[in-house]
Design a protein that fits this description.
The protein has 2 domains: about 1-110, 3-Layer(aba) Sandwich (Rossmann fold), CATH 3.40.50.10330; about 130-280, Tumour Suppressor Smad4 (Sandwich). Helix content is about 30%, strand content about 40%. It contains 9 helices and 17 strands. The strands form 3 sheets. Strands 5, 6, 7, 8, 9, 12, 13, 14, 15, 16 and 17 form an 11-stranded antiparallel beta sheet that branches. A 4-stranded parallel beta sheet has the order 2-1-3-4, with helices on both faces. β15 and β16 form a beta hairpin. The protein starts with a strand and ends with a strand.
Length: about 290
């Protein structure tokens, strides 16, 4: 087996990543292992493309959801399987696939698990595995200070979120799909390919990564109380019953906003609206638990 291990040197738990490297080297006696420590998303994509072109059997990614996202353009449509070693800050994709969060358990899945073909989303030509977020959450992602994230981990998002919550203004979202266009006042919109949004919080509880559909969740804002009541409902998993939360499914949609809003893909900032989002069916092979 020919394997490339990509380790993010800035990952939330780099000490664990080093353990992964040592354990993997021991496990892979008789196999070919190459290691890369790219210092940027562009570099990670480039080394992954080289591995795909060389027909590597596996690309193992040691990092968080952003590191995994950086190699997706190289893996789309290929036969090279992705193995996830969750040593990032939140590791939502690993949770979605029920991949163990320990290095030993994740390595076993990456090497000996079941290959599963799953869908990806694509926003303005860039693939994503989990979700595209527009509005408030993307603004929070943009505001997070990298040094603070390294210091306090996921609490950096909480800090940025609390600072932005009281002052963030909603936008008029213009959404077009299937020859229908609607305008909705909203402060947050998630186009999900997966059920989980963060940790064990499922914004689109019925979403499946192999169903050929994107699950859209819009947090509309008609009154001053909507934002507060939506957050309370989301915390207990009842946001789908809120009168100003809208959920629907589609294969593609166009989104613009007035004023324009930030865009995040899989937890990393990715520009701003407008955005064209489409589904890439069965575009990625992921190693998952048997």
């Amino acid at each position: 087996m020919h394997i490339l291990l990509i380790l993010n040197p800035k990952a939330g738990n780099m000490a664990t990543a080093r353990v992964a490297l040592v354990e993997l080297a021991a496990i892979l006696s008789g196999h070919t292992l190459e290691v890369a420590l790219p210092t940027s998303a562009t570099a990670a994509e480039a080394v992954a493309r080289e591995a795909v072109a060389a027909r590597f059997d596996r690309i193992l990614v040691g990092g968080g959801d952003g590191t995994v996202n950086s190699v997706l353009p190289a893996l789309v449509g290929s036969e090279t399987a992705l193995g996830i070693l969750p040593v990032g800050t939140v590791n939502v994709l690993a949770r979605e696939f029920r991949i163990p969060l320990t290095v030993e358990g994740a390595l076993k899945v990456a090497l000996h698990g079941a290959p599963r073909r799953v869908d990806l989303g694509q926003a303005n030509g860039k693939p994503f595995a989990l979700m595209a977020g527009l509005g408030f959450d993307a603004r929070v992602v943009a505001d997070v200070v990298p040094e603070l994230k390294k210091l306090i981990g996921p609490f950096a998002y909480v800090t940025a979120g609390l600072q932005a919550l009281a002052v963030y203004k909603s936008s008029q979202f213009r959404i077009s799909m299937d020859d229908v266009t609607v305008t909705v006042p909203a402060w947050l919109m998630i186009v999900g390919n997966a059920a989980y949004y963060t940790y064990e919080l499922a914004l689109s509880p019925d979403a499946r990564m192999d169903d050929g559909l994107l699950d859209v969740c819009i947090f509309g804002e008609q009154t001053a109380l909507d934002r507060v009541t939506q957050l309370m409902a989301t915390a207990v998993g009842l946001h789908t019953q809120h009168p100003n939360v809208t959920l629907f499914r589609t294969r593609s949609l166009s989104i613009s906003a007035d004023p324009p809003v930030h865009l995040q893909l899989d937890g990393d900032h990715a520009g701003s609206s407008p955005v064209e989002i489409t589904l890439l069916p069965k575009a990625l092979t992921v190693m998952t638990p048997r």
